[in-house]
Amino acid sequence: EVQLVESGGGLVKPGGSLRLSCAASGFTFSSYSMNWVRQAPGKGLEWVSSISSSSSYIYYADSVKGRFTISRDNAKNSLYLQMNSLRAEDTAVYYCAKLDTAMVTWGQGTLVTVSS
Amino acid sequence: QSVLTQPPSVSAAPGQKVTISCSGSSSNIGNNYVSWYQQLPGTAPKLLIYENNKRPSGIPDRFSGSKSGTSATLGITGLQTGDEADYYCGTWDSSLSVWVFGGGTKLTVL
């Protein structure tokens, strides 16, 4: 069974940092691009970042460029999102998603709250 | 404001049919595959339609997708109360090099 499990969310002060992780199982992780997508409370889906299977191609939404860094460790079947200089507007549930021609599998999400 | 435009809400009675539109441009819908996602209350999104009109295993054929030019449509027939959810379209934008979603459509089954 394909499974994605996010972790690392929590409460952080504005300007602080947090590192999210996504553990993948049930598929050949190293063969697929991966994404982070977030959803602010009561709002729609917002794509955050994508990374190709070998990390050769990385893309970011303008809203996080320069502050967030996506990475992966294919040996550990894991995806990461390093979030720095966090702002109140970064408060959201963060999902990791396996990408083929669509986001075929989603994790359950991890909540990040940025508040003083 | 989302790059892809969806109606905020649609509604229909049980057993009826509903369509949800998704409008974009040549840099996104016009030249890339469209996918649709269902998000039931309090849960993670789930893939409903990929590559414009294909259904993943386990998705009933009551759900269908189509694309024409720079617009896409999700159709749901035989509506059930369990279909009440938020629905999102998504695709890659080749000009912006970003993945884009529609703003979401809330389906109410009256």
Automatic annotation (TrEMBL), chain B:
Assembly with partners or alone: Immunoglobulins are composed of two identical heavy chains and two identical light chains; disulfide-linked.
Top-level taxon of the source organism: Eukaryota
Gene3D superfamilies found in the cross-reference section: Immunoglobulins (2.60.40.10)
Location(s) in or outside the cell: Cell membrane; Secreted
GO cellular component: extracellular region; immunoglobulin complex; plasma membrane
Keywords: Adaptive immunity, Cell membrane, Disulfide bond, Immunity, Immunoglobulin, Immunoglobulin domain, Membrane, Secreted
The UniProt record lists the keyword ATP-binding: no
Signal sequence range: none
GO BP of this protein: adaptive immune response
Protein's recorded name: IG c1033_light_IGLV1-51_IGLJ3
Keyword Kinase assigned: no
Transmembrane parts of this sequence: none
Domain Ig-like: 1-89
Organism ancestry: Eukaryota, Metazoa, Chordata, Craniata, Vertebrata
UniProt cross-references to CDD domains, sorted A to Z: IgV_L_lambda
Pfam families found in the cross-reference section: V-set
